[in-house]
Amino acid sequence: MNDSPLLSAEGLHITFPGRRGAPEARAVDGVDLDIAPGEIVALVGESGCGKTTLARSLLGLVKPTEGAVSFDGSPLRYEGRALKAYRKRVQLVLQDPSGSLNPRHTVYEAVAEGLRIHGYAGDERAKVTEALSRAGLRPPERFFLRYPHELSGGQRQRVVIAGALVLDPELIVADEPVASLDASVRGEILALLLGLRAELGLSALVVTHDLGLAWNIADRVAVMYLGRIVETGSVEEVLTSPRHPYTQALLSVLPEAGGEPVVLAGEPPDPTRIPSGCRFHARCQVLASGEAERAGVADACRGEDLAVLGGTGATRVACHWATASGR
């Protein structure tokens, strides 16, 4: 795997105006993130933490308020022709295949749509056949004239993946790619994504709330909370030795965790009112238990902001307590 990033976000901020004079919502509040060629990165966090907004920005669908996105060493430009060329190289796979497939279009039309949008001049039928085959729908010709309602959930997700593959992208952004599927099918789709990485050298950003999924598919994990990445590193390091209390809480509810699950107090804060200090401190079990006080960092937790973590593969954590205790 090449260490030079294929996709890179630097100092990314995305804000949305508040309603009726309310403060603006800081959906993404300072993020650095790199994805290397052939690397699978899992972006993990609760609903509302900003991970989907960050993913949409990396796709060029949301222009950042501050910061920049680069692809293959060149800044992402938001003009029509440049953006169209970029979206051919970076493709989106959505969570709900039923919602992303037009019920009036056959499988062939759904997969060929991207080729037609981008003015492909070659053999359309051959490209659609190849994409369906790579997505595991074989023999592909059997599926050409079928409609989404005639397919299983797993087959529909494979059609969505084929629609992304038909343009020969270098990176796929998969937003909760198996969340709507039965447990028996989830493993098949994850195995497919891993196989595509091995066969085609595809990179992927997998957006998920499920740390178990991250463990099964990712090389690296970035844990996001309230608009910022709070812990990042190789999937083995982060998920076997989590340092941030938020990561520890997310992992504690997995069946294989073994111990008592950590129940976090309350809901994540409103992104229009991000708290001072560590943005997790109001829900932090380490602060609530007195451990942060004993480590001499309780005041810092409540009042001192933490630096934005670097986007590379190095293991990093944004936590006063973890840093002070040498965790």
Question: TL;DR?
Answer:
The protein has helices at residues 51-58, 80-89, 97-100, 107-117, 124-134, 153-165, 183-200, 211-217, 235-240, 245-252, 285-288, 291-294, 298-303, 320-324; strands at residues 7-16, 25-35, 40-44, 66-71, 74-75, 90-93, 171-175, 203-208, 220-225, 228-234, 316-317.
SSE arrangement:
Blueprint (H helix, E strand, L loop, with lengths): L6 E10 L8 E11 L4 E5 L6 H8 L7 E6 L2 E2 L4 H10 E4 L3 H4 L6 H11 L6 H11 L18 H13 L5 E5 L7 H18 L2 E6 L2 H7 L2 E6 L2 E7 H6 L4 H8 L32 H4 L2 H4 L3 H6 L12 E2 L2 H5 L3
Parallel strand pairs: 3-8, 3-9, 6-7, 7-8
Antiparallel strand pairs: 1-2, 1-4, 4-5, 9-10, 10-11
Helix pairs in contact: 4-5, 4-6, 5-6, 6-7
